[in-house]
């Protein structure tokens, strides 16, 4: 069944992150492509504009020189200069006209073909028309102080060359950029999404193998995916601990219930061998009922302990007066203590408020008092006190009982543990374990001090009531006042 | 009295039916929730005993359906979990009382008769109780047996009144804990035994005929014959 499910699951898990990877890569390539295309379009235009500007400037500079020559040396100087200019191989055309737009001088180099020259000239005015110039031709005109107009047409192929060069460079950039974008996308996707892949693989392995000890590999960086992996590991560790605690308590419950169930079964079996309705059969039946009640009580207590230890105990916490709860528990035992000849004294500070589950903490107090009474001889004394100690609310039960030997002290909280001398006392041996489990489920702690022959002190400490309820109380007081 | 029993377990249901029939009740037994709802909705039904886990329709929704149909028949819920929350849920859904499995039959009987009394119109307001040669004045709190006054402490008085209002009926330790101390869970102590033995020493010690009897594994009963 699981083998049939595995391949599908694997493909689904891998497919999911591949899809995410493909999406990230596609977006990266698309964004890069848009940038490169924009760059490739803008670059030649910029280059062309700049080169055109330079050529126009060169044309205007040359025209200024012609004007200077004309003003200084007349038409001859102009002509000499033009011949020299055209003779150097430049594609150039020059026209000088007077106020009536009559040619004073007109010259063009051999390179300027008749077609271009015709295109450059406006038929109506006979003037050089810069707006009709094909690409690469630059036109400038200037007027002299004598009222003449100089018009110069200069051809510069640099613009076209620059345009071509810029275009091929752009194409190169575009090609390289595209390759870089694809490679970068692959690299980034692989690197960035590797933790996700690790996470998916680890989860899949845990599901397949049931091994809660597996962990996601992390690199200890502050990267958010790495932190996700670390968090995931923390959760796995917690689950593992809880599963282990659950299994242990289940084993313990099974073990602890076997003994009373064996007694129950043995008693019933023995009774079956006797007479049908004799007094011994009735006795055995009564014992069977009592034994099954004990099994039930034990099961309830063990479940409570297991739930509390696993953090699954439901607590109905409210702000409660710890002294009230202690008083109720003492009240429950007043007859028992009188019966045993043990004097119970209380020192209950009023107004010690703790955020607790009333029924559960009453159980804690009752179990502690029950325990103290059991091990205190007639004439002894049990003191129950409640006080505030800094932030904490403290419940203490002090007895003048037999005390606990030092090596046994840490074990009093263990399930079913009873010091040798207390074997004769009735009870489940779960009372103190339950106390510890309930108190710890409240976030509190338990402690015990004891001296053989002097007595024991059991102390339960609850953290202070949450600030919000205290501030709430303060608010309601201030609003009343 | 006509009791509707809604329980799918053959053995448990059989025990309850036999016991209630012996007590003189008429028992209709439904083995699933829907059939149970039909039976409990009939006018003739006086009380319903409902298991929580039922095929067809669970016990709590059955009770809710009964209450929505304005049927105020007393209901006792049988539940497998002793969880406090479950108890609260059981009572909120309209149940009048609950018992957790496993329970003693005597306790079920006692709760049945307590509910029957509560639902019957004549309220028990007697302030002077008597059983055999035992007398108890609830107002003056004076008790005597065969004319001899008996000094009682508060809890002893509460227990004696409880026993005398339920003569010849077995009261379980849980019921006594609930009644005398208002404790709704078993603190696993012998406080009830201690209270009963104190009361017994005052009532029975000087008399050959014992009135308070221990029913082992079940509870205590006030009864003239042993």
Helix content of chain A: 55-70%
Major beta-sheet overview of chain B: 5 strands, parallel
Strand content of chain B: 15-25%
Number of strands of chain A: 11
Uncertain residue segments of chain A: 1-10, 420-425, 467-481
Sheet with the most strands, sense and barrel status of chain A: 5 strands, mixed
Number of strands of chain B: 12
Listing every helix as H and every strand as E from the N terminus to the C terminus, the arrangement of chain A reads HEEHEEHHHEHHEEHEEHEEH
Poorly predicted runs of chain B are none
Fold blueprint:
The complex is a heterodimer of chains A (481) and B (226).
Chain A: H1 2-87, E1 92-97, E2 103-108, H2 114-120, E3 137-143, E4 149-155, H3 158-209, H4 224-273, H5 279-309, E5 317-321, H6 322-332, H7 334-340, E6 343-348, E7 353-357, H8 358-374, E8 381-389, E9 392-399, H9 431-441, E10 445-451, E11 455-462, H10 467-480
Helix pairs in contact in A: 1-3, 3-4, 4-5, 5-9, 6-8, 8-9
Chain B: E1 2-6, H1 10-22, E2 26-30, H2 33-41, E3 47-51, H3 59-68, E4 75-79, H4 84-92, E5 97-100, H5 105-119, E6 128-131, E7 134-137, E8 142-145, E9 148-150, H6 154-165, E10 171-172, H7 173-181, H8 191-203, E11 212-215, E12 219-222
Parallel strand pairs in B: 1-2, 1-3, 3-4, 4-5
Antiparallel strand pairs in B: 6-7, 7-8, 8-9, 10-12, 11-12
């Amino acid at each position: 069944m699981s083998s049939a499910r595995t391949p599908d699951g694997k493909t689904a898990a891998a497919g999911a992150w591949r899809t995410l990877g493909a999406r990230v890569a596609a977006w990266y390539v698309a964004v890069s492509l848009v940038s490169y295309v924009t760059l490739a379009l803008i670059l030649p235009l910029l280059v062309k504009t700049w080169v055109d500007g330079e050529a126009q400037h060169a044309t205007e500079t040359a025209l200024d020189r012609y004007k200077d020559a004309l003003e200084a040396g007349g038409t001859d100087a102009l002509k000499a200069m033009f011949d020299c200019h055209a003779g150097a191989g430049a594609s150039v055309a020059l026209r000088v006209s007077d106020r009536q737009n009559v040619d004073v001088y007109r010259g063009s180099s051999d390179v300027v073909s008749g077609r271009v020259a015709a295109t450059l000239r406006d038929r109506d005015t006979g003037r050089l028309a810069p707006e009709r110039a094909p690409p690469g031709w630059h036109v400038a005109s200037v007027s002299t102080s004598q009222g003449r107009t100089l018009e110069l047409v200069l051809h510069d192929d640099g613009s076209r060359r620059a345009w071509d060069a810029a275009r091929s460079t752009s194409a190169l950039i575009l090609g390289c950029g595209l390759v870089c974008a694809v490679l970068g996308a692959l690299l980034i996707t692989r690197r960035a999404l590797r933790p996700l892949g690790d996470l998916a693989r680890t989860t899949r392995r845990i599901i397949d193998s049931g091994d809660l000890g597996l962990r996601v590999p992390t690199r200890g960086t502050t990267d958010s995916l790495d932190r996700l992996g670390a968090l995931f590991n923390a959760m796995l560790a917690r689950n593992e601990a809880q599963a282990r605690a659950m299994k242990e308590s289940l084993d313990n419950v099974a073990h602890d219930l076997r003994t009373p169930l064996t007694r129950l079964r043995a008693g019933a079996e023995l009774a079956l061998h006797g007479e049908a309705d004799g007094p011994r059969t009735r006795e055995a039946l009564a014992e069977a009922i009592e034994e099954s009640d004990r099994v039930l009580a034990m099961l309830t207590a063990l479940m409570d302990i297991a739930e509390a230890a696993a953090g699954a105990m439901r607590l109905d916490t409210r702000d409660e007066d710890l002294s009230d709860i202690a008083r109720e528990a003492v009240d429950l035992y007043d007859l028992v203590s009188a019966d045993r000849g043990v004097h119970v004294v209380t020192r209950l500070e009023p107004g010690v408020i703790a955020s607790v589950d009333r029924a559960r903490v009453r159980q804690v107090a009752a179990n502690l008092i029950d325990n103290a009474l059991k091990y205190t001889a007639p004439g002894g004394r049990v003191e129950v006190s409640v006080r505030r100690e800094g932030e904490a609310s403290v419940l203490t039960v002090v007895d003048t009982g037999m005390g606990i030997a030092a090596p046994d002290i840490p074990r009093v909280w263990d399930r079913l543990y009873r010091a040798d001398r207390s074997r004769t006392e009735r009870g489940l041996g779960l009372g103190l374990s339950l106390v510890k489990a309930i108190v710890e489920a409240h976030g509190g702690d338990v402690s015990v001090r004891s001296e053989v022959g002097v007595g024991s002190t059991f102390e339960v400490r609850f953290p202070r009531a949450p600030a919000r309820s205290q501030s709430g109380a303060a608010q309601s007081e201030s609003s009343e006042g | 009295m006509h009791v509707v029993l809604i329980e799918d377990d053959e053995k448990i249901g059989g025990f309850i039916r036999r016991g209630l029939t012996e007590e003189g009740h008429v028992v209709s037994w439904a083995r699933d929730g829907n059939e149970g709802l039909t039976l409990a909705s009939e006018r003739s039904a006086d009380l319903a005993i409902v298991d929580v886990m039922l095929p067809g329709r669970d016990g709590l929704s059955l009770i809710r359906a009964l209450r929505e149909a304005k049927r105020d028949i007393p209901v006792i819920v049988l539940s497998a979990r002793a969880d406090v929350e479950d108890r609260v849920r059981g009572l909120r859904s309209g149940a009048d009382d609950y018992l957790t499995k496993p329970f003693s039959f005597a306790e079920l009987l006692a709760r049945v008769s307590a509910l029957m009394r509560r639902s019957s119109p004549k309220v028990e307001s007697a302030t002077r109780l008597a059983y055999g040669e035992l007398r108890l004045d609830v107002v003056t709190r004076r008790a005597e047996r065969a004319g001899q006054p008996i000094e009682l402490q508060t809890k002893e008085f509460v227990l004696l009144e409880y026993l005398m209002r339920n003569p010849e009926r077995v009261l379980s330790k849980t019921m006594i804990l609930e009644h005398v101390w208002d404790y709704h869970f078993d603190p696993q102590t012998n406080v009830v035994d201690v209270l009963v033995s104190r009361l017994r020493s005052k009532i029975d010690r000087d008399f050959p005929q014992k009135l308070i009897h221990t029913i082992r594994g079940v509870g205590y009963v006030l009864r003239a014959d042993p």
